[in-house]
Amino acid sequence: xxxxxxxxxxxxxxxxxxxxxxxxxxxxxxxxxxxxxxxxxxxxxxxxxxxxxxxxxxxxxxxxxxxxxxxxxxxxxxxxxxxxxxxxxxxxxxxxxxxxxxxxxxxxxxxxxxxxxxxxxxxxxxxxxxxxxxxxxxxxxxxxxxxxxxxxxxxxxxxxxxxxxxxxxxxxxxxxxxxxxxxxxxxxxxxxxxxxxxxxxxxxxxxxxxxxxxxxxxxxxxxxxxxxxxxxxxxxxxxxxxxxxxxxxxxxxxxxxxxxxxxxxxxxxxxxxxxxxxxxxxxxxxxxxxxxxxxxxxxxxxxxxxxxxxxxxxxxxxxxxxxxxxxx
Length: 328
Hints:
Layout: E1 2-6, H1 11-23, E2 28-33, E3 49-52, H2 58-66, E4 70-73, H3 80-85, H4 88-108, E5 111-117, H5 143-162, E6 166-171, E7 174-175, H6 184-193, E8 199-201, E9 207-209, E10 211-212, H7 213-226, E11 232-235, E12 240-242, H8 243-253, E13 262-264, H9 279-285, H10 294-307, H11 309-326
Parallel strand pairs: 1-2, 1-4, 2-3, 4-5, 5-6, 6-11, 7-10, 8-13
Antiparallel strand pairs: 9-12
């Protein structure tokens, strides 16, 4: 099988490539990535065919999709803070890029899997027992989540209108190795490793449904192998944890006072709670997460960042300067 992975030099995409190579020796993987600030070619094994380019480049995308049996579309601008600062890259990559890929998949009859986020559903109240399901109405609250919601709807329309063989997955918050230091968990870990105090938005009551990146990617392959074309599957591991608890756990695992962090200005429109109901994925396709212990997963992630300073250190200063400018 010839697999094209868009955004394969990013956090989740690079881990997907590594999992694919480790578990599917017959797969020939090509990565398409524009190597924006969040893409890092050093996250990839040297054996992978790599193409630097924009997913909105129609001619290049057509040639790559035409030579592939499967497209797994991770490529996205994905940071809420950045979308509030400048929404334009999110419209270009997440909407125009997805459209460009879908048109190529339509022309060549290529199987297509679209990676999305639970943020398209908006947020839930902290005391609400409900969780997101595939039937939850879309209610995005940032330029990032709105652009991802739009890309999901494009995929659904191309399935219904043109018969594109596509599936969609919406996943909760990922953590693990190779994640850019702008993101919540690696930012706090690398702050501690750099001798700085972690930073917590507001009171830290916001809840996220955490899942290890390897569990997410194993679920993606389950959907590609056994999912029904045209359907949407939600990927989660019942990992609901408040940001406050995450910071305290990181500090505790790193041998520091769990209260040794600073509160900073909250993000505008900061969603309160995300929670995924993955029962369809489990009941219909038989998937189960392997990393059920969030604390153990955090410990392994801390160890990875401690052992791989050369990977994250070059981006750390610029990231913190950006947050300083934003007051966060």
